[in-house]
Design goal:
Layout: E1 4-5, E2 10-14, E3 29-31, E4 49-52, E5 54-56, E6 66-68, E7 74-80, E8 85-88, E9 91-93, E10 95-97, E11 118-120, E12 176-183, H1 185-189, E13 197-212, E14 215-221, E15 223-227, E16 236-246, E17 252-258, E18 262-265, E19 268-271, E20 296-303, E21 305-316, E22 342-352, E23 358-365, E24 377-380, E25 383-386, E26 396-401, E27 406-412, E28 418-421, E29 427-434, E30 457-464, E31 481-483, E32 488-489, E33 492-498, E34 501-502, E35 505-509, E36 517-519, E37 535-538, E38 542-547, E39 552-555, E40 560-561, E41 566-567, E42 569-572, E43 575-576, E44 582-583, E45 591-594, E46 603-611, E47 622-628, E48 636-646, E49 649-659, E50 662-671, E51 678-684, E52 693-700, E53 707-715, E54 720-722, E55 726-728, E56 738-740, E57 747-751, E58 758-763, E59 769-775, E60 779-783, E61 790-797, E62 803-810
Length: 811
């Protein structure tokens, strides 16, 4: 707005609004007009704003230029993750719909102005947007950045002055948008630097059904606050602007049109002005001693099929400001109240009218596998929650003609999990989701490809609708969809989910006697001590490995003792467990095993699988094994394991003191650049022996790489355990430093160092230094009992600068 001259000061508050260009719209464009939403409600408000699109058809009489679009399509605009709270009486958040800047006079209470939430774009502004700054249709031609000093063709569809009612259809019946206000008062309150950039929260645009390539129209990203104390020198100015960053993954943004300050970088809508302000173009005039031009205004197309867009909003200041964001009345000569400042901008959306007929839907990550008879929500311990949408990293929707059983169209499912088939001929169809695209078209149909999902994903069901409506056949294909003339078939939805994983355990305990009852729980019962609790993870229900307390567990084999598979009795809550029994709401304190025979073989084992909310078990059940000590030796007992470098070959040697039904030794290797162990070779075990046996294996190494070796000791019954880890490299260092034991429980020793000041540093996997110790001789001990179990890196540096780095596993 124009600067208002007050009795003792001059105050300029300039913010701008935006609009969707109606006069340049393409036939069949869906846009926002005065009839799309309530134009009488004022803000500030954080309640969602719902706008129902109207169809812009240029070849109809002006009085019906915009008509009702059927079937209706709407968008809900809302805020999320608000970062700032305010202390003002009518605006309690950093962002609101329909808020606005106020002057420093007119009362004593600092508060937001009450502006219309949905309003004519460009209303009440001295430098409103021009048509040349916008493109309504996503299929329209891209327009070069609007040049400073240029003019559009006018804001009215007939090309006359904006704001007149020369079509007898009501003033401002076109080019409307939602007003968003980001107040800078919280930044002033916190005394934050004037040239910073601050996250305010998110704006969420949720469409009532999938849409393709929506165009987002932004106007007035930019504002300022200025004052000029009488007789106190030049005007003092603070510049600021809102900016928006699209958070949707897998979609891209395309600049369509805009003024010279409207800048699209990746998926970010930015203001490139060093002095952001309220005007969309330079009209050659000045507001006091500075131009009001500096707002970012224009159109950007989001490329893809989506049902929701999430923009993160920032407020950026300027190094050219004289002060940080705002002032209070004590700093302004003659002010009677604190001003309320911020950036007011408008957002509108348009898109090409979908070509009828339509089949659309979404793919949901359905954790509960339709147990609630609903794809769109999932049951939780505290009620229901919305299932997220997904494309599982890359799947396709294939449209199948139900009569010919051939694919007639194929398209990738959007990164947000949505798909949309347009211009579908009348007929009956099915939709298939799969990793396999098809070349089939309506003119040249193709055979249906195999139904398959990415590794780890499975189908949970297909729904025609978000409520009850499963077709009862979980196969990755929908039930038949009948399409008639003008039809829009939405919510043809699919559910998929990922399978759970269960954790193996091998634990050494004292040898139990006949009739011994062992509780598989922590804390354990003497003399067996703490035993591992059944543990697993599930991407939807329990992303990290954790105990399965309260989860469902399936017992896929029953407990047996020793290599002869003598039965043991596995019980839950005193009742014998049967094969493949599923126990819901698992409690480890109720899981016991009873030995029905005296000690035999090397231990006891059974297999179990975590069962997720969808009722699907881990397809690779875990092994739970107890190994007897005292009186029952380990199946394979490695007494010595070394890795000796010979040029660039690692010569591995190991000895066993005893072997009972040993099968083989698998040699596993990882490196300093790849911590994942891989099997590189195998050596057969003797099998059964009570005398020392020796084994060797050689492995070629490359310069500059540190190798870590371990042995996987495998019994004939498939049970296994790991040896300590040894390292080697073909570098030219002559150090003989040995770190042992590895793995370690609490204290490890470092041997072979130089005499003098040796620094031992222990680092976590994230690089954080967690332990440092100076050892002044060639060997010493380091206590890490207080550290959590896991992988660590040990770096030993001598006084002369020699350095050795080794991995260390802590139990």
């Amino acid at each position: 707005m124009k600067t208002r001259k007050l009795s003792k000061i001059v105050l300029a508050i300039t913010c701008l609004v935006a609009f969707v260009n109606s006069s340049n719209a393409q036939p069949g464009t869906l846009e926002m007009t005065s009839l799309c939403s309530n134009t009488s409600i004022q803000g500030p408000s954080t309640a969602p704003v719902v706008v129902t699109f109207r169809e812009d058809i240029l070849n109809l009489p002006v009085a019906t230029h915009f008509k009702t679009y059927n079937p209706p399509l709407s968008v809900s605009m809302s805020f999320a993750n608000q970062q700032y709270n305010t202390v003002y009486n009518n605006m309690s958040t950093g962002m609101a719909f329909g808020g606005g800047t106020t002057a420093s006079t007119g009362g004593t209470t600092q508060q937001s102005a009450n502006n219309l939430i949905y309003n004519a774009l460009g209303s009440s502004l001295v430098q409103p947007p021009q048509n040349g700054m916008f493109v309504s249709s996503p299929s329209g031609a891209v327009v070069a950045n609007y040049q400073l000093g240029g003019r559009g063709v006018g804001l009215d569809p007939e090309g006359t002055q904006f704001g007149t009612d020369d079509d007898n259809f009501g003033a401002f019946d076109y080019s409307f948008g939602t007003a968003i206000y980001a107040t800078v008062e919280p930044l002033w309150d916190a005394n934050l630097p004037k040239d910073g950039r601050y996250y305010y929260g998110d704006i969420v645009f949720k469409f009532s059904r999938p849409v393709t390539n929506p165009v987002i129209h932004i106007g007035g990203l930019g504002g300022s606050y200025s004052y000029q104390p009488i007789g106190a020198g030049p005007r003092q100015i603070s510049y600021f602007t809102a900016e928006m960053e699209l958070q949707n993954s897998g979609v891209t943004s395309t600049f369509m049109a805009g003024n010279e300050n409207f800048n699209i970088v990746g998926n970010n809508i930015l203001n490139s002005s060093a002095t952001p302000n309220g005007g969309s173009y330079n009209d050659g005039g000045t507001e006091g001693s500075f131009l009001t031009y500096g707002a970012a205004t224009g159109s950007v197309r989001v490329n893809g099929t989506v049902t929701q867009l999430v923009y993160r909003v920032y407020v950026r200041g300027s190094v050219n400001s004289n002060f940080n964001f705002s002032k209070n009345q004590a700093d302004i000569t003659g002010a009677t109240r604190d001003p309320f400042n911020g950036d007011l901008f408008y957002v509108a959306i348009s898109l090409d009218k979908p070509v009828l007929q339509i089949i659309s839907g979404s793919v949901f990550n359905d954790a509960d596998g339709l147990t609630d008879n609903n794809i769109a929500t999932t049951l939780t311990s505290v009620g229901s929650a919305v299932n997220p949408k997904t494309n599982a990293g890359g799947i396709y929707a294939n449209l199948i003609n139900n009569t010919t059983n051939l694919v007639v169209a194929s398209l990738p499912i959007g990164p947000g999990g949505d798909y949309l088939f347009q211009n579908v001929p009348i007929g009956t169809y099915r939709v298939q989701i799969t990793v396999n695209p098809s070349t089939g078209t309506y003119a040249l149909p193709a055979v249906i490809p195999a139904t398959a999902l990415p590794a780890g994903w499975v189908n949970t069901g297909e729904f025609n609708g978000v409520g009850a409506g499963s077709d009862g056949n979980v196969n990755g294909q929908s039930a038949p969809i009948v399409v008639i003339l003008g039809d829009t078939k939405t919510d043809n939805n699919f559910g998929i989910e990922r399978l759970p994983d269960s954790k193996d355990f091998t634990t050494v305990i004292v040898t139990p006697g006949l009739g011994a009852v062992i509780t598989l729980n922590t804390p354990g019962i003497a003399p067996y001590g703490n035993l591992p609790i059944l543990t697993g993870s599930d991407p939807e229900d329990q992303p990290s490995m954790a105990v399965l307390t309260g989860k469902s567990v399936k017992f896929t084999t029953l407990a047996t003792v020793g290599t002869t598979n003598i039965p043991a009795v596995l019980k839950y809550n005193g009742t014998v467990i049967t094969l493949n029994q599923v126990i819901p709401n698992f409690n480890a304190a109720l899981l016991t095993v009873t030995l029905s025979t005296p000690w035999a073989g090397s231990g006891l084992k059974f297999n179990y699988a975590y069962v997720d909310l969808a009722g699907l078990p881990d397809p690779t059940p875990a092994l739970y094994r107890l190994v007897w000590s005292g009186g029952g030796p380990l199946a394979i007992n490695v007494s010595e394991f070394t890795a000796v470098k010979n040029n660039c070959t690692a010569n591995l040697s190991w000895k066993t003191s005893t072997e009972i039904n040993g099968d083989r030794f698998e040699i596993e290797v990882s490196t300093n650049s790849n911590p994942v162990y891989a099997t590189v070779g195998s050596v057969l075990a003797t099998g059964n022996s009570s005398t020392t046996k020796s084994y060797q294996y050689s492995y070629p190494m490359q310069p500059g790489i540190t190798y870590y070796f371990r042995l996987k000791l495998v019994d004939k019954d498939g049970s296994f355990k790991y040896s300590d880890t040894r390292s080697s490299s073909c570098s030219n260092d002559k150090t003989g430093i040995v770190i042992a034991p590895n793995p370690v429980i609490d204290i490890f020793s470092v041997k072979g160092m130089e005499n003098g000041k040796n620094v031992v540093a222990v680092y976590a996997t994230n690089g954080q230094l967690v332990k440092t110790q100076v050892i002044a001789q060639n060997q010493g001990e380091v206590n890490i009992a207080y550290l959590a179990p896991g992988m660590y890196t040990v770096k030993v540096t001598s006084e002369t600068g020699n350095t050795v780095i080794s991995k260390l596993i802590k139990y």
